[in-house]
Structures are given as structure tokens and as C-alpha cells.
Amino acid sequence: MFGMNDEPAHMVRAQGVLRGDFSDPYITDGLPGEQYNCVFWQGQTADCMDLTWLPEGTIQSSPTNNYPPLLHFIAGIPSLFFDGLLGAYLMRIWLASICVAILAWAVKLLLDRSPTRWTLLGVSVGCTPMAIFCMSGVAPSGLTFAGAAVLWASGLNVFIPSSSTVRRQSQVTFIAAALLFPFLRRDAFLWEVLILFCLLSMVSLAHLKQLSKLRTTWVSLLGIFASMVAVWTIWASKATDSFVSNASSHFGGSWKSGIGQLYSYILMLIGNFGWNSTWMSSEMLVTCIITVCSVLLIALTSSNRYFTRGLLVTVALFFVSPVAIGAVRSYYIQGRYLFPLWIGVFILAGQAIGKNFFPNVFERRFFKLVIGLEIVYQFFAFAQNQRRYTVGASGTWKFLGRSDVWHPPMMNNWFVLALIIISLSAIPIFGHKLIKEFTPMIDTQEISESSQS
């Protein structure tokens, strides 16, 4: 509990918002929101926190007062029915389920337009360990990641439809996603503008003219613009003013410092857990970077001109946007803020590669290789999180024969061994099932397309 950056602050506001309290401080069920201090950059095990709840109706402050309330409305629903530690965990499970459902809908829309293994591969590579970590806690980054995925997926189907696209379904999803996305966090409207720009860069002039003749297009654009104006007026303008006016007291800013932070941002969005204090091992970071770069390079060198242009624009904005922010105020953004563009890069990559006819042996082997590497670094990312809070930042999993490195009473050694064995046993079972069940659909489509050509 409270193992994620700013999670207690978002839980406090979520409880307050669902109780009709929209201004700081908030009415809560007694959530012990200050207990995270002993694990915040301290390296202690999670049992240092006293998770005894305070009396019902306790008033607590939260620095999230200037956030749009959509996340807190959604996350706080379980607090209407459950309180205490159970209510806090249910809040996590509820929000994680919402994120997974939205992400699954994005995958469904993408598979409708291109039912190939590359579609699945693109989304799965985009789901870094940090993205999965963020979707498992009460914080805006996870819901923003899932929301961006469905915005990209539905946007592709609207602006660049394929013959198998379910158009009405995609149009409704796109309009809903575009209207609600700005309300997820203060900077969400900025990322939506960039996403729409990337999508428009891929559209042919003929299709753009066709869209401009539809009344639905203009009504939707008016609604999207209104939602962005509302977010800017009520929440984002104040945050932007504070961001600019306080730049000098936060290391200032320069293009050089913005560029210097790029590599750190990439590492952060791959695997920097907890309160930005628990990194994946360097070996797993390198494995993940090699995996995602190999997929991206194949996409860039094999896609048609529209997808190549879209990929180049999205990748360019992914690098330029943090540099531009750093030019105003250094050391401000964190890697997870870039999730909306990151997932877009790999959704486009999967769609771009899927339009090519590679040898079947290459497709099968490359798919298995990438999925296999993903399984490895995702598992070790999970293990790293467990180690951090059960053993401590200075501990180790190498406890066999060395009882001095284990830090009781968080977790029994044999329980950890059983957990590792079960996880490692499940990996080949589900990995094989994934590959086996997905292959017939691809092979059938490949045979059909080959016969048509």
C-alpha cells in the first residue's frame, strides 16, 4: 500500500470528491495518508508503515487540488461502499480493472482493422513494466496510458480506416475518448493535441476532404475544443502559470538541460517504480530497450509512406516535447508523462509492420523472440518491486545460505520461492497458449490475402 508516487494524495482526493468535497482539505474515511514517508526514498521495507485507520470523517489535505476530477470520480467509487484498508485495496483493483478494460477495447479496435500478430506485438511492446505498474495503482498515469491507447486505436480507424474497420463503433469511441481524455490530468489536453496532429499527418488529402464534409466532424471538433478550453480555464492555466513563474527556483531551464534528461525519461517510462526510487536492473533495462528498438526499426524500414510519416512525426514529438518543457523548467517532467506518445509509437509500429508480407518463418520466430524477451523483463520487473518492499532497497533475493541478507518479518523465504516457481511455471504455459491460439487467425488471413493477390 502507498507504494506508488503520490498514491495516498490521489486516494485522499478521490474519497473527498465522491463525498461531494471538491476543495482542499478533503473529508476522508481516515486514510493514513502520511505513512508513506518511511518508504519515500528511505529504502525501508513496507512494514515500517502503520496502516491503522483514523476516525471516519477525518479532514486531510492533498496537493492534487488543481487536478481535473475525472480520475478521482472513477477511482473513488469503491469508497462509497467499503472503507478502511479493504476499501483502499478495492480502489486499486477497481481502477486497474478499468484501465485493463480500456486497453483491451483499444486492442479489439486494432485487431478489427488488422487481425495480425503484429497488432498484438505493437501494443504489448508499448506496455512497458512502468506502464503496467502505473495501471495497478491509484494515479493518473495508468488511466492516461490506457486512454491514450484507445484514442490512438479509434483515431486510426476514423482517419485511416481499413476494409475491416467497424466504422460506427470506432467513431463513437473516438468522440468519447477525445472528449474525456483532457479531464484525466492537467496536461492531458496538450498530449491530445499532439496525438491528433500525428494522426492528421497520416491522412490523405482526399480522405481529409471527405471528413470535412460531414456535419459530425464539425460537431465533434467543437465538443473537443470546448472540453480542452474547460480544462485549460479551470485547471491547466493555473498549473501552467505556476510552472513558468517558479522555473527560476527549480533549476531554471535550457535546451541543453532538456536534451540531457532525455535518456533518463526513457529509462523512467520503462522501469522506475515506487516513489521514483526503485529502478529495474541495468540488464533488464538494456533487454527492454533492445526489444523495443528492434520492433521500431523494422516498422520504420518496412512501412508505407503514410505510416512512415506518422511514425517519424510521433517519434520526433516524443523527443521534442520534453526538450521544449526542459527549456522552460528543468527536472520537471517524469518519464511516465510521455506515455501518450510512447504507446502511439508502438501502436503505429504494429499496424505498419502488419501491412507487409514477411516470410512466415521470420514472422513466427521474431514474434516468439519478442514475446519471450518481454516475458523475461516483465517478470524481473515484478520481482524487483517485490524485493524493494519486502527486503528493502539494500537487500537481495540471494538469500539461500545467507540469512543475513533477508529482512524479516515481511515475507517468508519459502513463500518467495513458491511465488517464483509458480510465476516461472505459468510463463511458458500462457506464452505457448498465446502463440498457438493467435497463429491460426494470422495464417488464415495470410492465405486469404495471398489468394486475392
Automatic annotation (TrEMBL):
The chain crosses the membrane at residues 89-111, 118-139, 188-206, 218-237, 281-299, 311-331, 337-354, 366-383, 414-431. Keywords: Membrane, Transmembrane, Transmembrane helix. Coiled coil: none annotated. Signal peptide: none annotated. InterPro entries: DUF2142_membrane. This is Unannotated protein. It holds the Pfam family DUF2142.
